[in-house]
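Morning run. Coffee first, then this:
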Amino acid sequence: MKNLQEMQARFSSNEKRLTKLSLDIDELNRKMTQYLQAIQDKAQDVHYLVTQVKIRSVHI
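And here it is:
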C-alpha cells in the first residue's frame, strides 16, 4: 500500500510539473508568434522602401 501511495504522489508531482511546462511552452509560443509577426512587418516595410528607391532611381 505504501508503494502505491508513493507512486501516486510521484505521479501527481510529475503531472503538476508537466502542466506547468505545458503552460510555459504555450507562453513561449505566444511570444514567438508576436516576435515573428513583428519581424514580418518590418521585412514588409523594408521591402516596400527598397522597391520605392528602385522605382525612383529608374525615373532619375
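The mean pLDDT is 95. Good start to the day.
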